[in-house]
Design brief:
Protein name: Copine 8
Keywords: Calcium, Metal-binding, Repeat
Domain VWFA: 284-458
Radius of gyration: 30 Å
GO molecular function, one term: metal ion binding
Family: Belongs to the copine family.
Distance between the termini: 38 Å
Number of helices: 12
Number of strands: 30
Largest sheet: 7 strands, mixed
Oligomer: single chain
């Protein structure tokens, strides 16, 4: 699961017909309809276009849907009770909508007062860096103490960062260089957070040891430095005397136990998933639904495709759970929707790659609701048949992904199925080929069937292979939907749990493709600059 990404939300709100504003942010818990106040901006007066300074720091997860509500008030007194002030309107959105908008800047109309133009709100988000730098360093040593009776020494370095309580925590060990008093260690990469917790002046202690086979390594000596000192690079400031305190206390003529020299110091900033999204990379979502006969007659309540007028079936829940999160990262909200394993009208031919909307030249549906409508229409027109073949729909998405390799687009295919795969050899080959492309595959198994064969496609343990070739990346995530069904019958919670698990690997799969291909994020658009106006603020 990816790390938490903290998002800094700054909110600028052009509004109308008032002169004293406050904006209140509310959030919703997963599976809950209750809104809880998260925070308030400062009060701004004497302007119709307030640009709020106070920012809200929130945790962001790609795989979670974070519902947000912004309420605007005209402040009439110093009372913290919002009912004492005039309600001016509100805006609903998700954190993903803000992050996924161009430049992570979302503009929406303020609503809530019928028949009134309440103005617009501009919401921006930025990722807190949280010390994303890594450093590539290399060291050598000269004239270290000889520790081995028959040879010289087998030296290695141990790095420690200091803690707030003056204790030390090990953060890196170099390799052992055998039989030398003048070792040159290989360059190594370490995050600045691991090295010094982002504090450039925090003490870094480095100990030098002589390696012994039995694990009782001999202490040669130690020295201290800091990130700020190391960042000077190779210079006279980064040649360190290795001191053994016991020897120094015993021998009056003791100078040192050798020297260690920094040979190189290179800082690299790690790019994040959000850097690409902010730079304009689009996530293209395609869904493929299993229409094989093993699902059961859609007219019968026992069918996995049964259209219950009161609640979604398992296919609908899986589709909405994943689609409603991914749609925030696709600007046009047009999604190809495919089916496989059915006989199509009018001639009854079997297809493993048909458009749910009936238009093979243009299989796109408008939003997730449009995909749902096309799915329901298809159930009424096609005949469920078989077998369960995945390769055609994987190849369908791969054809599009192969034409866009510049990092501007990434493709996610969601396959929802009830049964055992029939074309495993062809599917494995398709997955191996797709692993070189900007795409990921999510497979959700619905119903009571055994899905053991699917685990073979999910390369978490053993990388998928075909004809002796292994997948370049792990791009498949499989889960059985039954593992996520809430026992109390809360379908919203079931969908949230499913989405959290199947989408958690997408950012890392996305980054692995970009890194392998050496694709850097495009520059983000310039930040929004509000119009000039005179401000008075109350904190």
């Amino acid at each position: 699961m990816p790390d938490k990404r903290q998002i800094l939300g700054a909110f600028c709100c052009p509004a109308e017909c008032s002169s004293k504003f406050v904006c209140v942010l509310y959030t919703q818990g997963i599976g809950s309809k209750e809104w809880r106040e998260f925070g308030r901006t400062e009060v701004i007066d004497n302007t119709l276009n307030p640009d709020f300074v106070r920012k809200f720091i929130m945790d962001y997860f790609f795989e979670e849907r974070e519902n947000l509500r912004f309420d605007l008030y005209d402040v009439d007194s110093k009372s913290p009770n919002l009912s004492k002030h005039d309600f001016l309107g509100q805006v609903f959105c998700t954190l993903g909508e803000i992050v996924g908008s161009q430049g992570s800047r979302l503009e929406k109309a303020i609503v809530g007062i019928p028949g009134k133009n309440c103005g617009t709100i501009i919401l921006t988000a930025e990722e807190l860096n949280c010390c994303r730098d890594s450093v590539l360093m290399q060291f050598c040593a000269n004239k270290l103490d000889k520790k081995d009776f028959f040879g010289k020494s087998d030296p290695f370095l141990v790095f420690y960062r200091s803690n707030e309580d003056s204790s030390f925590t090990i953060c890196h060990k170099t390799e052992v260089v055998k039989n030398t008093l003048n070792p040159v260690w290989q360059a190594f990469k370490i995050s600045v957070r691991a090295l010094c917790n982002g504090d450039y002046d925090r003490t870094i202690k480095i100990e030098v040891y002589d390696w012994d086979r039995d694990g009782s390594h001999d202490f040669i000596g130690e020295f201290t430095t800091s990130y700020r000192e190391l960042s000077r690079g190779q210079s006279q400031f980064n040649v360190y005397e290795v001191i053994n305190p016991k020897k120094k206390g015993k021998k009056k003529k003791y100078i040192n136990s050798g020297t260690v020299t920094l040979l190189s110091f290179l800082v690299e900033t790690e790019v994040s998933f959000l850097d690409y999204i902010k730079g304009g990379t689009q996530i293209n979502f395609t869904v493929a639904i299993d229409f094989t006969a093993s699902n059961g007659n859609p007219a019968q309540p026992t069918s996995l495709h049964y259209m219950n007028p009161y609640q979604l079936n398992a296919y609908g829940m899986a589709l909405k759970a994943v689609g409603e999160i991914i749609q925030d990262y696709d600007s046009d909200k047009m999604f190809p929707a495919l089916g496989f394993g059915a006989k199509l009208p009018p001639d009854g031919r079997v297809s493993h790659e048909f458009a749910l909307n009936g238009n093979p030249q243009n299989p796109y549906c408008n939003g997730i609701d449009g995909v749902m409508e096309a799915y329901y229409r298809s159930l009424k027109s096609v005949q469920l048949y078989g077998p369960t073949n995945f390769a055609p729909v994987i190849n369908h998405v791969a054809r599009y992904a192969s034409s866009v390799k510049d990092g501007s687009q990434y493709f996610v295919l969601l396959i929802i199925t009830d049964g055992v795969i029939s074309d495993m050899a062809q599917t494995k080959e398709s997955v191996v080929n797709a692993s070189k492309l900007p795409m990921s595959i999510i497979i959700v198994g619905v119903g009571p069937a055994e899905f053991d064969a699917m685990e073979e496609l999910d390369g978490d343990v053993v990388r998928v292979s075909s004809r002796g070739k292994y997948a370049e990346r792990d791009i498949v995530q499989f889960v059985p939907f039954r593992d996520y069904i809430d026992r109390s019958g809360n379908h919203i919670l079931s969908m949230a749990r499913l989405a959290k698990d199947v989408l958690a690997e997408i950012p890392d799969q996305f980054l692995s493709y970009m890194r392998v291909r050496g694709i850097k994020p495009s520059p983000a658009p310039p930040p929004y600059t509000p119009p000039l106006h005179v401000l008075q603020t109350q904190i």
